[in-house]
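Shapes recur. Our protein:

. . .
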Amino acid sequence: MTEPVKPRRTYHSQRRKEQAEETRARILAAARRLLVERGFAGATIAAIADEAGTSQETIYQAFGNKRALLAELVQRAVRGDDPAPILEQAGPVAVSRSADPAEQLRLFAEDVAQRLERAGPLMRVLADAGHTDPDLAALHRRFHQARRRNLRTFTDGLAANAPLRVGRTQAADTVWALASPELHTFLTQTAGRSRKRYAAWLADTIMRALIQTGV
């Protein structure tokens, strides 16, 4: 009788995977802190490695370079805990399923407020760095272009439930500007509005700008 073949020891490979994920999480947390505090140039890979308790080589192996690290941070901030594309996440799905424009706007504004709180500081880092780094400037444009595409889906859904004052392209551009990271920063950081007040302002302003009343 032959001995049964022993299963491969998956415990160690699983543990190594968990350790790699823990290291990656520490790198991302450290990079976010330092990039927001010091800017792109000031947050060196050496400083991030020291903050994360790992080596510079590990960071390069995990992310490639600091530009790619910042890009991943922005994408994670925009998406939040859900790795699914934004339009497939619970918030935007709830907006698309509503047939009430006022509810659509309320849900949209609440969802956007949370995303901008997470992503706004990193988008500022990216915008500032783009003044001297063409690759980061291009990355900044791509993020904004992707944001506009998602917002066009929202305004098209809004138009399906209520007559708009303007054409759909102008409607998308209007929301693109009103729900921008830059305006969010001004209203929350400079003007001191809470998330709740910002969301209420955004929903009301879009309603006034886009929705025809008394039709």
Remarks:
- The radius of gyration is 22 Å.
- The mean pLDDT is 93.
